[in-house]
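Re: cobalt (II) ion structure - here you go.
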Amino acid sequence: MRAAGAIAAVVLEDVAGFIRPGVTTQEVDEFAASRIRCYGAASAFLGYRGYPCSICISVNDEVVHGIAGSRRIQFGDIISLDVGVRYQGYVGDTAKTVAVGGCSLIAQKLIDVTTQALYEGISCALSGNRVVDISRAVQKHVEANGFTVVREFVGHGVGRTVHEEPQVPNFVESGKSSVKLRPGMTIAIEPMVNAGSAVVKVLSDGWTVVTQDGLPSAHMEHTVLITQSEPEILTCPENLPFALKAK
Ligand code: MF3
Ligand code: CO
Ligand code: CO
Protein backbone atom coordinates (compact mmCIF):
# COMPACT_ATOMS: atom_id res chain seq x y z
CA MET A 1 0.00 0.00 0.00
CA ARG A 2 2.93 2.36 0.69
CA ALA A 3 4.46 1.72 -2.73
CA ALA A 4 1.12 2.04 -4.56
CA GLY A 5 0.35 5.20 -2.61
CA ALA A 6 3.73 6.73 -3.38
CA ILE A 7 3.38 6.01 -7.10
CA ALA A 8 -0.08 7.61 -7.14
CA ALA A 9 1.33 10.66 -5.33
CA VAL A 10 4.31 11.04 -7.68
CA VAL A 11 2.12 10.63 -10.76
CA LEU A 12 -0.22 13.31 -9.38
CA GLU A 13 2.77 15.67 -8.93
CA ASP A 14 4.06 14.86 -12.41
CA VAL A 15 0.64 15.50 -13.97
CA ALA A 16 0.11 18.73 -12.01
CA GLY A 17 3.44 19.96 -13.42
CA PHE A 18 2.28 19.16 -16.96
CA ILE A 19 -0.86 21.31 -16.66
CA ARG A 20 -0.59 24.59 -18.57
CA PRO A 21 -2.81 26.80 -20.73
CA GLY A 22 -3.38 25.36 -24.19
CA VAL A 23 -3.02 21.64 -23.47
CA THR A 24 -6.09 19.50 -23.96
CA THR A 25 -7.41 17.25 -21.22
CA GLN A 26 -6.79 14.34 -23.61
CA GLU A 27 -3.08 15.26 -23.69
CA VAL A 28 -3.06 15.40 -19.90
CA ASP A 29 -4.64 11.94 -19.69
CA GLU A 30 -2.12 10.52 -22.17
CA PHE A 31 0.74 12.04 -20.17
CA ALA A 32 -0.70 10.49 -16.99
CA ALA A 33 -0.98 7.09 -18.67
CA SER A 34 2.67 7.22 -19.69
CA ARG A 35 3.79 8.23 -16.17
CA ILE A 36 1.74 5.44 -14.54
CA ARG A 37 3.30 2.94 -16.97
CA CYS A 38 6.87 4.06 -16.36
CA TYR A 39 6.54 3.21 -12.64
CA GLY A 40 5.34 -0.29 -13.56
CA ALA A 41 1.83 0.45 -12.30
CA ALA A 42 -1.62 0.41 -13.93
CA SER A 43 -4.51 2.85 -13.76
CA ALA A 44 -7.05 1.70 -11.18
CA PHE A 45 -9.72 3.76 -12.97
CA LEU A 46 -9.36 2.76 -16.64
CA GLY A 47 -12.15 0.25 -17.28
CA TYR A 48 -13.57 0.58 -13.76
CA ARG A 49 -17.34 0.25 -14.39
CA GLY A 50 -16.42 1.20 -17.97
CA TYR A 51 -14.60 4.46 -17.11
CA PRO A 52 -12.73 5.38 -20.32
CA CYS A 53 -9.70 7.37 -19.05
CA SER A 54 -6.51 6.76 -17.04
CA ILE A 55 -7.15 9.55 -14.52
CA CYS A 56 -10.09 11.83 -13.73
CA ILE A 57 -9.71 15.45 -14.91
CA SER A 58 -12.47 17.78 -13.76
CA VAL A 59 -12.43 21.47 -14.75
CA ASN A 60 -14.01 24.38 -12.79
CA ASP A 61 -17.67 23.42 -12.17
CA GLU A 62 -16.88 19.76 -12.81
CA VAL A 63 -16.76 18.04 -9.42
CA VAL A 64 -15.31 14.57 -10.15
CA HIS A 65 -15.10 11.92 -12.88
CA GLY A 66 -14.45 14.37 -15.72
CA ILE A 67 -13.66 12.68 -19.04
CA ALA A 68 -10.62 13.75 -21.05
CA GLY A 69 -11.27 15.20 -24.51
CA SER A 70 -10.51 18.09 -26.83
CA ARG A 71 -11.16 20.82 -24.22
CA ARG A 72 -8.16 23.15 -23.88
CA ILE A 73 -7.09 24.19 -20.40
CA GLN A 74 -7.12 27.97 -19.93
CA PHE A 75 -5.37 30.42 -17.65
CA GLY A 76 -7.49 30.81 -14.51
CA ASP A 77 -9.12 27.37 -14.68
CA ILE A 78 -9.05 25.15 -11.64
CA ILE A 79 -8.36 21.53 -12.48
CA SER A 80 -9.17 18.60 -10.19
CA LEU A 81 -6.84 15.67 -10.89
CA ASP A 82 -7.66 12.25 -9.38
CA VAL A 83 -5.07 9.48 -9.74
CA GLY A 84 -5.70 5.85 -8.80
CA VAL A 85 -3.01 3.27 -9.49
CA ARG A 86 -2.62 -0.45 -8.91
CA TYR A 87 0.89 -1.72 -8.08
CA GLN A 88 1.74 -5.26 -7.02
CA GLY A 89 -1.93 -5.92 -6.26
CA TYR A 90 -2.60 -2.82 -4.15
CA VAL A 91 -4.26 0.50 -4.91
CA GLY A 92 -3.27 4.07 -4.07
CA ASP A 93 -5.84 6.85 -4.60
CA THR A 94 -5.10 10.58 -4.39
CA ALA A 95 -6.48 13.81 -5.81
CA LYS A 96 -5.88 17.52 -5.77
CA THR A 97 -7.19 20.68 -7.39
CA VAL A 98 -4.68 23.03 -8.99
CA ALA A 99 -5.09 26.56 -10.34
CA VAL A 100 -3.73 27.21 -13.84
CA GLY A 101 -1.43 30.22 -13.56
CA GLY A 102 -3.70 32.09 -11.22
CA CYS A 103 -7.38 31.93 -10.40
CA SER A 104 -10.12 34.02 -8.83
CA LEU A 105 -9.92 34.82 -5.11
CA ILE A 106 -12.99 32.69 -4.47
CA ALA A 107 -11.52 29.71 -6.33
CA GLN A 108 -8.27 30.02 -4.36
CA LYS A 109 -10.22 30.13 -1.09
CA LEU A 110 -12.16 27.05 -2.23
CA ILE A 111 -8.90 25.18 -2.86
CA ASP A 112 -7.44 26.25 0.49
CA VAL A 113 -10.56 25.32 2.46
CA THR A 114 -10.80 21.92 0.73
CA THR A 115 -7.12 21.22 1.47
CA GLN A 116 -7.55 22.18 5.12
CA ALA A 117 -10.77 20.10 5.33
CA LEU A 118 -8.83 17.05 4.11
CA TYR A 119 -6.23 17.53 6.86
CA GLU A 120 -8.92 18.17 9.49
CA GLY A 121 -10.41 14.82 8.45
CA ILE A 122 -7.06 13.03 8.44
CA SER A 123 -6.32 14.32 11.94
CA CYS A 124 -9.38 12.35 13.14
CA ALA A 125 -8.28 9.11 11.42
CA LEU A 126 -7.25 7.61 14.76
CA SER A 127 -7.65 4.11 16.18
CA GLY A 128 -10.73 4.07 18.44
CA ASN A 129 -12.43 6.93 16.60
CA ARG A 130 -15.29 6.24 14.22
CA VAL A 131 -15.60 7.13 10.54
CA VAL A 132 -18.19 9.75 11.51
CA ASP A 133 -15.49 11.66 13.44
CA ILE A 134 -13.69 12.19 10.11
CA SER A 135 -16.94 13.16 8.37
CA ARG A 136 -17.81 15.67 11.09
CA ALA A 137 -14.40 17.35 10.99
CA VAL A 138 -14.51 17.75 7.19
CA GLN A 139 -18.08 19.08 7.14
CA LYS A 140 -17.47 21.49 10.02
CA HIS A 141 -14.44 23.09 8.38
CA VAL A 142 -16.15 23.43 4.99
CA GLU A 143 -19.41 24.88 6.30
CA ALA A 144 -17.65 27.23 8.76
CA ASN A 145 -16.04 28.76 5.66
CA GLY A 146 -19.31 29.19 3.78
CA PHE A 147 -18.89 26.33 1.30
CA THR A 148 -20.82 23.06 0.92
CA VAL A 149 -19.93 19.35 0.82
CA VAL A 150 -21.13 17.04 -1.93
CA ARG A 151 -23.41 14.25 -0.63
CA GLU A 152 -23.63 11.88 -3.60
CA PHE A 153 -19.95 10.86 -3.65
CA VAL A 154 -17.92 9.80 -0.64
CA GLY A 155 -14.52 8.54 0.50
CA HIS A 156 -14.01 4.84 0.98
CA GLY A 157 -11.88 1.97 2.17
CA VAL A 158 -9.12 1.17 -0.31
CA GLY A 159 -6.86 -1.88 -0.59
CA ARG A 160 -6.79 -4.56 -3.25
CA THR A 161 -9.61 -2.71 -5.01
CA VAL A 162 -10.28 1.01 -5.29
CA HIS A 163 -13.62 1.08 -3.53
CA GLU A 164 -13.94 -1.05 -0.39
CA GLU A 165 -15.92 -0.79 2.82
CA PRO A 166 -16.45 1.41 4.74
CA GLN A 167 -17.83 4.50 3.03
CA VAL A 168 -16.25 7.71 4.33
CA PRO A 169 -18.78 10.51 3.80
CA ASN A 170 -17.88 14.19 4.03
CA PHE A 171 -20.99 14.91 6.08
CA VAL A 172 -22.75 13.50 9.14
CA GLU A 173 -25.93 11.52 8.64
CA SER A 174 -27.78 11.56 11.95
CA GLY A 175 -28.87 8.17 13.24
CA LYS A 176 -26.50 6.23 11.00
CA SER A 177 -24.08 3.81 12.64
CA SER A 178 -20.43 4.26 11.78
CA VAL A 179 -17.48 1.86 11.70
CA LYS A 180 -14.80 2.02 14.41
CA LEU A 181 -11.29 2.69 13.04
CA ARG A 182 -8.60 0.09 13.82
CA PRO A 183 -4.85 -0.07 13.13
CA GLY A 184 -4.15 -1.53 9.69
CA MET A 185 -7.26 -0.09 8.02
CA THR A 186 -6.55 1.96 4.88
CA ILE A 187 -9.11 4.54 3.79
CA ALA A 188 -9.38 7.27 1.16
CA ILE A 189 -10.51 10.58 2.65
CA GLU A 190 -11.67 12.91 -0.13
CA PRO A 191 -13.66 16.08 0.47
CA MET A 192 -15.50 17.35 -2.61
CA VAL A 193 -16.39 20.97 -1.88
CA ASN A 194 -18.64 23.35 -3.81
CA ALA A 195 -18.39 27.14 -3.78
CA GLY A 196 -22.19 27.43 -4.06
CA SER A 197 -24.94 24.88 -3.57
CA ALA A 198 -24.14 21.24 -2.77
CA VAL A 199 -26.43 20.02 -5.56
CA VAL A 200 -24.71 18.15 -8.37
CA LYS A 201 -25.80 16.40 -11.56
CA VAL A 202 -24.23 13.90 -13.95
CA LEU A 203 -23.76 14.98 -17.58
CA SER A 204 -25.11 12.93 -20.49
CA ASP A 205 -21.67 11.29 -20.95
CA GLY A 206 -22.73 9.23 -17.92
CA TRP A 207 -19.62 10.21 -15.89
CA THR A 208 -18.88 13.91 -15.51
CA VAL A 209 -20.34 15.25 -12.26
CA VAL A 210 -20.96 19.02 -12.32
CA THR A 211 -22.38 21.54 -9.89
CA GLN A 212 -25.99 22.39 -10.71
CA ASP A 213 -25.39 26.13 -10.21
CA GLY A 214 -22.26 26.19 -12.40
CA LEU A 215 -20.04 27.47 -9.57
CA PRO A 216 -16.60 25.88 -9.08
CA SER A 217 -15.84 22.76 -7.06
CA ALA A 218 -12.61 21.40 -5.55
CA HIS A 219 -11.46 17.90 -4.58
CA MET A 220 -8.56 16.77 -2.39
CA GLU A 221 -7.80 13.15 -1.49
CA HIS A 222 -5.26 11.04 0.36
CA THR A 223 -5.08 7.33 1.08
CA VAL A 224 -4.46 7.05 4.83
CA LEU A 225 -3.34 4.19 7.10
CA ILE A 226 -4.82 3.97 10.60
CA THR A 227 -2.02 3.16 13.07
CA GLN A 228 -1.73 2.84 16.85
CA SER A 229 -0.65 6.48 16.93
CA GLU A 230 -0.77 9.17 14.23
CA PRO A 231 -2.45 8.53 10.88
CA GLU A 232 0.03 7.78 8.09
CA ILE A 233 -0.56 9.36 4.68
CA LEU A 234 0.23 6.61 2.17
CA THR A 235 -0.10 8.82 -0.92
CA CYS A 236 3.16 10.50 -0.11
CA PRO A 237 5.97 10.92 -2.70
CA GLU A 238 8.71 10.30 -0.10
CA ASN A 239 7.79 6.60 0.15
CA LEU A 240 8.56 5.90 -3.50
CA PRO A 241 10.57 2.63 -3.63
CA PHE A 242 14.22 3.45 -4.28
CA ALA A 243 14.32 1.44 -7.51
CA LEU A 244 11.56 3.65 -8.97
CA LYS A 245 13.09 7.02 -8.06
CA ALA A 246 14.87 7.63 -11.36
CA LYS A 247 11.94 6.59 -13.57
N1 MF3 B 1 -12.96 9.51 -7.92
C1 MF3 B 1 -13.06 8.20 -7.40
C2 MF3 B 1 -12.32 8.05 -6.12
O1 MF3 B 1 -11.37 8.75 -5.82
C3 MF3 B 1 -12.69 7.11 -8.34
C4 MF3 B 1 -13.04 7.34 -9.75
S1 MF3 B 1 -13.71 5.94 -10.41
C5 MF3 B 1 -13.71 6.25 -12.05
O2 MF3 B 1 -12.71 7.23 -5.33
F1 MF3 B 1 -14.14 5.20 -12.63
F2 MF3 B 1 -14.43 7.32 -12.28
F3 MF3 B 1 -12.50 6.51 -12.42
CO1 CO C 1 -9.53 9.29 -6.15
CO1 CO D 1 -11.19 7.76 -3.79
